[in-house]
Amino acid sequence: MMPKLKSIDKIQFQNSLLNWFKKNKRSLPWREQAHWYPVFLSEIMLQQTQVDQALPYYVKFIKRYPNIHALSKATEQEVLSLWAGLGYYSRARNLLKTARIIVTDYQAKFPRDIKQALMLPGIGKYSASAILSIVYNLPYAVVDGNVYRVMSRLFAVPDDIRLNKTQKSIQKISDQLLSNIDPGNYNEAIMELGAVICKKQNPDCIKCPVQTFCEAFKKNEQLRYPIKSAAPSKRKITHHALIIVNKEAYLFVQRPASGLLASFWEFPILEMKKKDIKDELLESELKKIYGIEGKVTLKGDVFRHQYSHIDLTYQPVIIKSNNKKIKYLNNYRASKWCTFEELNELPIHNAHLKLIEWFKNLSQ
Ligand code: SF4
Q1: How far apart are CA 233 and CA 346, in angstroms?
Q2: pLDDT by residue (tens digit) across 79-133?
Q3: Whose CA is nearest to atom 4 of ligand 1?
Q4: Whether 302 contacts 211, CB under 8 Å
Q5: Could you read off the pLDDT of 168-198 as tens digits, one per residue?
Q6: Are strands 310-320 and 235-246 parallel, antiparallel or unpaired?
Q7: Residue 206 exposed, middle or buried by CB count within 10 Å (0-12, 13-18, 19+)
Q8: Partners of 244 in the beta sheet?
Q9: 3-state class of 251 per DSSP?
Q10: For residue 83, which of 27, 92, 302, 318 is within the disulfide window of CB 3.0 to 4.6 Å?
């Protein structure tokens, strides 16, 4: 059962947290300007992503698209290409769609109305609450992974954090704890507390501004919370990633317009049940599926790449081909032969960026 909020003094709690944040907040580029656009851009990037990972991408984006008008005029391929490596690519597509809607329907300003905000592509409860509270000081409490952890510890929440009803209860208690006077700073403060003090493995309770309110600290059971059941197991797949070489050029193909990694470019894939496939079989599959003749020259070490629901094992295979004719696209949208130098504007997803790096190191 969830504990009740009345057990703590709300005003004292808010003051302790806000004072700490005022003195200790990290200097981040989106905090430098009092404008909604940097907040919007950073909050989309920070969905399921830590500040350190998002930071270089934010810097690249703000340089290339310094305002909503510039972003709204970008093409999807340009945005995906800049986003490549950050993962959860639907965010990049939705960012662009939302930028265009904001320019055409909302006079290039993020809407203040939460119902309108929630209708924008890629804007869920978390992002809407973060943007509206930070930009317009509206009282919507954010609950992200950090806040779930902090709340679970503060209130020694005894229920499984994966359950919907537990998440709803934490949202309710966060709504009640929120400062109505300074909701933007309060939200940033509670997320920051989770990110830098109330960390997953080593909570720094000695420096914690709300230690006196914390049930887990009182019981010395910080690491027991949040209570979390095991994650559902992922589907396991093996891909043979074919680095097909013709002189200085490599074959790249564009993924379908929907589904996992939609519209990204990659090396052609053979999805096979077994990992140890003989070279002759790979060559005949290559001919059957893509209509290309080639000879396997090297197989690299396998490596794994995790997606939210898939555990993918990649087997890199280098193939030499003497002709550039690809007969069948095999569900891909397009193909092109290019050198690695010509790839800069092409969106390539993370796993295949790793393959490119591996291949470049090999050739040096
Ligand atoms: S006292 Fe420790 S466990 Fe409790 S909120 Fe602070 S950092 Fe987290």
Answers
A1: 33
A2: 999 998 898 889 999 999 999 999 999 999 999 999 999 999 999 999 999 999 9
A3: 214
A4: no
A5: 999 999 999 999 999 999 999 999 999 999 9
A6: parallel
A7: exposed
A8: 319
A9: strand
A10: 92
43 belongs to the catalytic site: yes
For the Cβ of 216 lying below 6 angstroms from any atom of ligand 1, the answer is yes
> To 5 degrees, how large is the angle CA 50–CA 48–CA 263?
115
Rounded CA separation 329/274 (Å): 23
Residues 292-300: contacts with CB under 8 Å, at least 24 apart: 292/244, 292/251, 292/321, 292/323, 292/325, 292/326, 292/327, 293/321, 293/322, 293/323, 294/244, 294/319, 294/320, 294/321, 294/322, 295/319, 295/320, 295/321, 298/362, 300/358, 300/362
Cβ(211) to ligand 1 under 6 A?
Answer: yes
Taking each continuous run of H as one helix and of E as one strand, the counts in the chain are 14, 8
Q: And the tokens for 355?
A: 């393959």
pLDDT band (50, 70, 90) for residue 340: confident
Check if 217 has its Cβ closer than 6 Å to any atom of ligand 1. Answer: yes
Q: How far apart are CA 67 and CA 341, in angstroms?
A: 29
Dig out the tokens for 209 from the structure: 């501004």
Q: Which CATH class is domain 235-363?
A: alpha beta
Q: Are 20 and 192 in contact (CB under 8 A)?
A: no
pLDDT reported for residue 241 = 94
Confidence grade of residue 6 (pLDDT, cut at 50, 70, 90): low
In whole angstroms, what separates CA 332 from the centre of its chain? 24
Number of C-beta neighbours around residue 342 at 10 A: 14
223-230 contact pairs (CB < 8 A, 24+) = 225/149, 225/152, 225/153, 225/156, 225/157, 226/148, 226/149, 226/152, 226/153, 226/157, 226/161, 227/152, 227/157, 227/158, 227/159, 227/160, 227/161, 228/160, 228/161, 228/162, 229/160, 229/162
Query: Mutation test of ligand 1: which of 24, 155, 211 has the most ligand atoms closer than 8 Å to its C-beta?
Result: 211
Phi, psi of 345 (to 5 degrees): -95, 0
**Is domain 5-224 classified as CATH 1.10.3720.10?**
no
Domain boundaries of the chain, sorted by first residue? 5-224, 235-363
